[in-house]
Amino acid sequence: MKLDIKIGFGFDVHSFAEGRKLILGGIEIPSTKGLEGHSDADVLLHAISDAILGALALGDIGRHFPNTDERWKDVDSAVILKHCYSLVKKEGYSISNIDSMLAIEIPKVSPFIEKIRNNISELLQISPSQISVKATTAEKLGFVGRAEGVVAMATVLLIKSDFNV
């Protein structure tokens, strides 16, 4: 039996900015500041998208959605994630699971974790049980600890949908 699996890792970071909405996992989180970026700056969906692209060895979201291209200015990161997932399906894979982590000092996102998981589940048409979203603080250390920005990391496991046995 041959099992065809691929694993990818994604990482993204954005600084806080005045006058923007805070979008994490496609969900607006109540906050006095949002994240700076060319798109809606959803660090979580960006990290997951990069993990998908990494598993497929297709570069990163900057290659597919360059911040120098005005077509992607303020784009909803769900568009980015759905594009990356279309590449998974095109290559004959499916997502086994996603494990992700947010490093954010404020605001507290734990009350929104299930809503975020459910939203990602809907975007990818997979079960919420295949999606882990965790959050931690930086214990007041570094730029995250000073509430200057947010870090997101994600791993994704892809399995060939029609592997030979």
Automatic annotation (TrEMBL):
Q: Does the keyword Metal-binding apply?
A: yes
Q: What is the lineage of its organism?
A: Bacteria, Pseudomonadati, Ignavibacteriota, Ignavibacteria, Ignavibacteriales
The record's family statement is: Belongs to the IspF family.
Q: What SUPFAM superfamilies has UniProt attached to this entry?
A: IpsF-like (SSF69765)
EC class of the enzyme, as a word: lyase
* Annotated residues for binding of a divalent metal cation: D12, H14, H46
Domain of life here?
Bacteria
Q: Which Pfam families match?
A: YgbB
Which keywords annotate this record? Isoprene biosynthesis, Lyase, Metal-binding
Assembly state and interactors?
Homotrimer.
Any one GO molecular function term: 2-C-methyl-D-erythritol 2,4-cyclodiphosphate synthase activity
- Specify whether Metal-binding is a keyword of the entry: yes
Describe which pathway this protein belongs to, using the record's wording: Isoprenoid biosynthesis; isopentenyl diphosphate biosynthesis via DXP pathway; isopentenyl diphosphate from 1-deoxy-D-xylulose 5-phosphate: step 4/6
Quote the protein name from its UniProt record: 2-C-methyl-D-erythritol 2,4-cyclodiphosphate synthase
Instruction: Relay the cofactor remark from the entry.
Output: Binds 1 divalent metal cation per subunit.
Q: Which InterPro entries match?
A: MECDP_synthase, MECDP_synthase_CS, MECDP_synthase_sf
